[in-house]
Amino acid sequence: MKKIVAVANQKGGVGKTTTTINLAASLAVEEKNVLILDLDPQANSTSGLGISISQSAPSTYQFLVGDRSAEESIIPSSLKYLSLLPGSINMAGFESEAAKIRGSHQLLQKKLEDPAFEKYDFIFLDCPPSLGYITINALVSAHSVLIPVQCEFFALEGLSHLLKTLDRIRKQWNPGLNVEGILPTMFDRRNRLSNQVLADLKKHFPEMIFKSVIPRNVTLGEAPSYGKPVLLYDALSRGAQSYLHLAREILAYG
Amino acid sequence: MKKIVAVANQKGGVGKTTTTINLAASLAVEEKNVLILDLDPQANSTSGLGISISQSAPSTYQFLVGDRSAEESIIPSSLKYLSLLPGSINMAGFESEAAKIRGSHQLLQKKLEDPAFEKYDFIFLDCPPSLGYITINALVSAHSVLIPVQCEFFALEGLSHLLKTLDRIRKQWNPGLNVEGILPTMFDRRNRLSNQVLADLKKHFPEMIFKSVIPRNVTLGEAPSYGKPVLLYDALSRGAQSYLHLAREILAYG
Ligand SMILES: Nc1ncnc2c1ncn2[C@@H]1O[C@H](COP(=O)(O)OP(=O)(O)OP(=O)(O)O)[C@@H](O)[C@H]1O
Ligand SMILES: Nc1ncnc2c1ncn2[C@@H]1O[C@H](COP(=O)(O)OP(=O)(O)OP(=O)(O)O)[C@@H](O)[C@H]1O
Ligand SMILES: [Mg+2]
Ligand SMILES: [Mg+2]
């Protein structure tokens, strides 16, 4: 039974793509069949896996609004159990086009009903840094949402607005939408503010926060420049270990 | 003669807000009359200056689409020569509403023609992490655009797309739009990737890159949690010094 997880936060640069790539890779090495849908026009999940596609190649945009099927759009990655539906810059057009299409909030939800997706254990939706039509489509389609939160001042601010948006999505389109968890990212244990933000997250969202905390670790920034998940770049690093722990935590809770 | 500078990059978390607040503050202590327009629905420039406004208070959204004037919307900050037109979450509605308004690309440009803005030497437009209607309005209204680029792999990727977007804006709405400069941010001299990205920026964009480089510095993350520009939080820090240098560089080139 496939589990669709949206990775979302309208605050920019909090680790949505880094979490999508590395959590998906960590689950793939546990032999879960995992698919990443790169919904961000920046297509960082695609380039972070070392994949570059031509403008005319099948991508999430054509899959969503065009006539490309899942079968012809999904491509393999460097890991046996990890596949990708690549993103492209074309997706930037979706935001303004969707405003004029009827039922535009449920486009992705309908497309994900295709039987071709049933073979996956997890489908991760990497979202852009906004709460526009792309992210709304992801939240409408998802069983749960994973919220990376950088351990910095500005990152805490937007969290309550995101949780309110989830309430709206539940009421209007997706009553079963859960929070997979709040994931503290770029945590620096030597930094007072970092510790304060983590303490605040534990205090205000005790039942939502993951036990796993992702440290600020240089390998997480370097790995995408080699087109690899951190697991294939430096498996012993704290960055790689922290995502393996997160994958184990998610599998344990089921 | 007022100079309108958009601070933009669709990549999230690269230091747009941090640059807006601290460059504006550095110019204000040089006794330039500076205004910040917080165009981001996250309203981080507003909270980063320690300002919180009620839902009904005048904000950029009402100024842009409602009937609030500049005079009644602009508020003082903790620095004599720095003022703010505060942001609010209402701005999130602008993206979908603008798609239906005629001439929606030039709404801000028209509003900035108000004589109330003539008294400012610099007006900074803090943009959200996308190239939607909000950022397009900023680019159409601006004399120049300042592009913060984090010294990380993903941040380089989106730069060529942003520069292409600027070309489109020049052709369609704003022929005089210049690049104020590309500003390397969060530079860590001990980090190989950071040095490589900086070297790449210098090689590919030699005539656009600033001499000033903003280092990764903990005070830049801490200052907004005290509602202060870094200059008022820790003036001797490398973070504060780097933005003072940037202000001097911009004033020298004129
Ligand atoms: N734990 C970490 N330690 C060090 N660097 C990290 C970590 N997580 C992410 N990074 C780096 O920080 C930057 C931002 O991360 P990422 O791009 O994954 O965030 P995002 O939320 O997907 O951004 P956007 O909002 O633009 O989509 C990237 O350059 C990434 O390599
Ligand atoms: N030079 C720096 N050194 C250390 N931390 C920094 C630096 N510049 C910014 N930061 C921190 O990094 C985070 C991202 O910066 P900021 O919010 O200014 O980026 P942004 O581009 O405005 O993000 P968004 O895309 O969400 O608008 C913030 O928590 C900020 O405090
Ligand atoms: Mg991303
Ligand atoms: Mg910002």
Describe this structure in words.
The structure is a homodimer of 254-residue chains. Chain A is an alpha/beta fold and 254 residues long. Chain A has helices at residues 16-28, 44-48, 60-65, 70-73, 92-98, 107-111, 133-141, 153-157, 159-172, 192-204, 218-222, 230-233, 238-253, and strands at 3-7, 34-38, 75-76, 82-85, 122-126, 144-150, 178-185. A 7-stranded mixed sheet of chain A has the order 3-4-2-5-1-6-7, with helices on both faces. In chain A, a hairpin with a 5-residue loop joins strand 3 (75-76) and strand 4. The structure holds adenosine-5'-triphosphate (ATP) (2 copies) and magnesium ion (2 copies). The site of one magnesium ion has 4 residues of chain A, from helix 1.
Summarize the structure.
The structure is a homodimer. Chain A is about 40% helix and about 15% strand.
